[in-house]
Amino acid sequence: MNALDPVEVHPAWLPPAAFQALGSRRVLVRGEGLLVETVRAEVARACERHGGAVLSGYESPDLVLTLGGAHEEGFVLANQDGVTEVRAGGQPGMLYGLFHVVRLGEAAFAAGREPEVHRPATRRRMVDHWDNVDAHPVMGQVERGYSGGSLFWADGELRADRARMRSYGRLLAACGVNAIAVNNVNVHTTEAHLLTDRLGDVAAIANELRPYGIRVHLSVSFASPIVLGGLPTADPADEQVRAWWAETTRRVYETIADFGGYVVKADSEGQPGPFAYGRSHADGAKVLAEALAPHGGVVHWRAFVYNHRQDWRDRSTDRARAAYDHFSPLDGQFPENAILQVKHGPIDFQPREPVSPLLTAMPATRLAVEFQATQEYTGQQRHLCYLAPMWSEVLAFSPEVPAAELVAVANAGDDPFWTGHPLAQANLYAFGRLAWSPRMDPLAVLDEWIDLTFVPSSTSDPALLRRTLHAVMDGSWRTYERYTAPLGVGFMVRPGHHYGPDVDGYEYTPWGTYHFADRDGVGVDRTRASGTGFTGQYPPPWAQVYESREQCPDELLLFFHHVPYGHVLHDGSTVIQHIYDTHFAGAEQAAELRQRWESVAGLVAEDVYARVRDRLDEQVRSAAEWRDQINAYFFRKSGVPDAKGRRIP
Ligand code: GCW
Predict the structure, then answer these.
(1) How far apart are the first and last CA of the chain?
(2) Is 131 near ligand 1, meaning CB less than 6 Å away?
(3) Which of 84, 211, 487, 497 is the most buried (most CB within 10 A)?
(4) β-pair type (140-142, 153-154)
(5) In angstroms, rounded to a whole number, what is the distance separating the alpha carbons of residues 523 and 486?
(6) Alpha-carbon dihedral sign for residues 561, 562, 564, 565
(7) Which phi and psi angles does 51 have, rounded to 5°?
(8) Is the CB of 452 under 6 A from ligand 1?
């Protein structure tokens, strides 16, 4: 048995106190296997701390964890005659059942509890790390990482601190995640070698994560046959190329028998892909899928393909259209073990976007929805932004969406609090829970996270703490939205690092992210009638709703329409007045959050309190900067004064 002792970092949603109810019981664990051993070790540690006992035979237990059910990852929780039983389909199910018992606390042992059946909505619940092995000259160790260094890599090497990897796997398993990609989708030279001569590093990570039921996936370069294999081409139709992928993949499975598969970013932002050979993305995905199929692996093929060298003068090209235009004609052509991984919005993880229409256009293709837990465009873990309400809106959009697998770009690193901002841990936790159960209420998820992370019995005023956490977190995404780019128009961030306001930062660049503000109005005309026609990519009723200025939801108005500043919104205010009002309000709310946090001084650990306070200080400063730049910009463009006479610099 491997040592499972947690390391000296913040315990996140698994502090020892969260195991009190379980650990004070008499527990019987039945079965054999690696994950059952993990369960046994968890139980033993909890019982040692809290006075319970691990039973081995016939003594009467309070809790039985046993195997024997239908779904490998599922379990049934029941209480009969005062004994709580978790009957799991397979070993992973027992592990998830254990963490469910932890989540329930005392409630798991209440007599007469109705039996509950639990099983994940989808087979794979995955986090993608954009971690580099070699620190990248611009992007650093972790691309878009705001949590210190990588958990896996440092300065070109695999990290020596394997215990931290193990602890991470434990946290992921406790919220339901079962797959992880350990390197950046932008695959640079060193990282390309993880597939071949540095595979041992990947195997070492897999060894740490395996006891928690997590499979390792690898981002690979489409040009691997050239870069690693010395072939003259990476053309997917070339026999040598196919043979190279087949043989390379066979070796991978020889080393890591339960390897998950490949993640590919192709023909995107400079990454190589099948277009170079006149082949389609289905052709490209096929060659990798075929290599993986005999071993049970999958390829996640990203749909984030667009022209990043667009001419800003050309108003007919629309980046929002790109994924659908490229991929919808390929529906039905992807092999069974290929999963098309689609960003949740048509552009790029903005705080407000419509749901990507591609998700409704691929009935014959396996899909994954990609969320971004790392807060690239939502405050970079300096601002508080609980993202689950946004993700839930995406998941509720249409029946296709919750049926897809879920992937999140990870937000964790070697920071002592895992996620830089301690409250950003909730985003990782919530992602796992929503991937398991897409229809869960995001605020109920937050309650789970609060109870686990800030165990009520460990604080003198749990009610005040809970109230405060809800007050600062529930609406934090909307607060962020208020003081940043208005009404869904997006991208008013500083080019490059994407932190803080820069209204015209991207306006005259090749990136395809424009707002088209002039003296008369603002927004992108994506209608069929007079714009780029993007609205036509949606099925009814959305094609009509988004096409119509009158019906389009306010929060997306400028994503779909170019309107005059005097355009009247559903709430009765004009666009320009809405911009002023929301920006004043948003910055004020940020200041209120900061005040509110003071009420939990002494209720949470000092280091957590201080870190959150410092981040909130920066959020208050930055929100005021956003308010002033956005308001000043639109006042100067439009010449329309604020109806309430507030000072606009
Ligand atoms: O949002 C953009 C980021 C890039 C990222 C890219 C992607 C990994 O700015 O840093 O590259 O998306 O999703 O591929």
Answers:
(1) 64
(2) no
(3) 487
(4) unpaired
(5) 10
(6) positive
(7) 90, 5
(8) no
SS3 of 148-205: CCCCCEECCEECCCHHHHHHHHHHHHHHCCCEEECCCCCCCHHHHHHHCCCHHHHHHH
Q: What's the CA gap between 350 and 375, in Å, rounded?
A: 10
pLDDT tens sequence across 132-164 = 999 999 999 999 999 999 999 999 999 999 999
Within 176-280, residue ranges assigned H as helices are 189-192, 199-209, 224-227, 239-255
Query: From CA 260, how far away is CA 255, in angstroms rounded?
Result: 12
- Report whether 383 contacts 572 (CB < 8 A): no
Q: What is the pLDDT of residues 56-98, one digit of tens each?
A: 877 899 999 999 978 999 999 999 989 999 999 999 999 999 9
Angle at 432 between CA 391 and CA 131, to 5 degrees: 90
Answer whether residue 7 shows pLDDT above 50: no
- Tell me if 42 CB under 6 Å of ligand 1: no
CB 284 within 8 A of CB 302: no
Contact 258, 206 (CB under 8 A): yes
CB 153 within 8 A of CB 198: no
Annotated active-site residue 348? The verdict is: yes
Is 238 marked active-site?
no
Mean pLDDT of the chain: 96
SS3 of 188, please?
coil
Nearest one of 351, 350, 373 to 147, comparing CA atoms: 373
Q: Is the pLDDT of residue 3 over 70?
A: no
Q: Which residue's C-alpha comes closest to atom 12 of ligand 1?
A: 348
User: Cα separations (Å) of 271 from 54, 220, 287, 341?
Assistant: 53, 10, 17, 16
Q: What is the pLDDT of residue 242?
A: 98
pTM of structure: 0.97
The two tokens of residue 217 are 């996936």
Nearest partner of 273 among 301, 312, 243, judged by Cα: 301
Residues β-bridged to residue 64: 28, 85
pLDDT at position 8, please?
65
- Cα separation, 443 vs 470, whole angstroms: 8
